[in-house]
Write a structure and sequence with these properties.
Number of helices: 4
Strand content: under 5%
Oligomer: single chain
CATH topology of the domain at 3-82: Helix Hairpins
Strand order of the largest sheet: 1-2
Number of strands: 2
Amino acid sequence: MKIKDIQEWEKDFVKRKGLLSPKNKNEAEELLKIAFLKLVEEVGELSEVVLKKRFKEIPAEVSDIIIFACKIGKIVEDYYNQPPLTEILKKKIEYSEKRKYDEKSLSFDKPGGGFGKE
């Protein structure tokens, strides 16, 4: 499954279920806040299943996180003129490959000032 598939499914799901679908930038901003809060909620649910060692539930919780992350990416693509999430992920992976790990400080360097800050 591709990110675009997830984004298209989510958009169709929202429409079929009669959920809030933004008609303008102001509504998109409100939906972005809601989607972010839902993402945080899902991360909390993942934390709970990890801490309680309910390992069979982890893939479902990770899936929820992926869905909301893709939703946020699609909102900024559609209403804030940002490049597709797939493009950014590709660039992020390329950037990560350039980074060097310092065992003394237990951290990676940030070549070029950091991803997205050049």
